[in-house]
Amino acid sequence: MEQWDLIIIGGGPAGLTAGIYGARSGLKTLILEEKTLGGATAESPLIENYPGFPAITGQELVSKMAEHCRRFAVTIKEIEGALELDLSSEMKTVKTDQASYSAFSVVIATGCHYRKLGVPGENEFKGRGVSYCAVCDGAFFKEKRVLVVGGGNSAATSALYLSNVASSVKLVHRRDQLRAEETLFRNLQERNVEFLWNTVAKEIKGDVKVRSVVVYNNKTGKTKEIEVDGVFVQVGEVPNSQIAIQAGVKVDEGGYIIVNERQRTNIAGVYAAGDVTNGPVKQVGTAVGQAIVAATEGFGYIKRPYYYKG
Ligand code: NAP
Predict the structure, then answer these.
(1) Ligand 1 geometric centre to CA of 179 (Å)
(2) Strand, coil or helix: what is 160?
(3) What structural domains does the chain harbor?
(4) pTM score of the predicted model
(5) Tens of pLDDT, residues 97-144
(6) Close Cβ partners of 121 (under 8 Å, ≥ 6 residues apart)
(7) Most buried in the list 139, 192, 234, 299, measured by CB within 10 Å?
């Protein structure tokens, strides 16, 4: 079994940052990423609130972080997902579909995946008009009519991105105001994105591809069918905490890993950072900050420097 000091599970901004800090503090550091690097951030059309980068795409930012990480001799294994963790002894083990690894300390930075809307037609038309990623699929909707569901930053940034591509963008939100940042709301208004307030998407219809969405207005009680070519579902996230839960890591009622201010979980030597944690603000900046704390704590736990407060 390959032995490491620190294993980081997940290669988004939190995982890459933990990698930089782990390696720079002299730890033999491995990052395991089940897909390609970047996590959900790589799919973000535009990031305007990461200090130092007034406007950058998620993919560009992640590429810079990955390059930074590789410069400090972090070993990164992509397309190798952790399947099982054993965190019960001092040497923790991580089993993937390809190998088993052991380490003194583990940082869990597995992020989140998209929440589904759960309406008829959603699964049926996935990839045939239903999408969860504007950056990945937006180009298929050039000069087409699209509808975005959700009221958070993801829905707002997706709608903005699509407004550069599609012929019309409608934003459907179940309330009369967005949860997204005010700046994004103003930008949406400037881009002629049409808001359907107090509206719930009930069904996605089509034949070989999406043709329409049935929406219900929860104030007027009226239902109508809107003809569209694409539906972008952006209704939040679900934490990727399953393998951590199976290994005994405690989570809150939403499945987010419970951490303290030092990113410690309930298991000694096991830390979590980024969107998978119960941290109150889910941003690239907070993920990066949490990861710095987690990797620094991991270093303290492994090397026990004189100033480490265990
Ligand atoms: P979010 O902030 O949790 O927002 C989810 C939105 O979907 C909410 O408006 C919610 O409505 C709505 N929703 C949830 N379930 C629904 C359902 N079944 N049917 C209809 N609507 C539903 O999620 P997010 O926008 O994906 O963002 C996730 C996190 O990443 C957030 O913390 C966000 O700030 C962050 N993020 C930041 C940026 C950025 O700063 N540039 C970009 C993307 C994401 P209610 O409002 O009624 O609950």
Answers:
(1) 7
(2) helix
(3) 2-113+237-303 (3.50.50.60), 116-233 (3.50.50.60)
(4) 0.93
(5) 999 999 999 999 999 999 999 999 999 999 999 999 999 999 999 999
(6) 130, 203, 204, 205, 206, 210
(7) 234
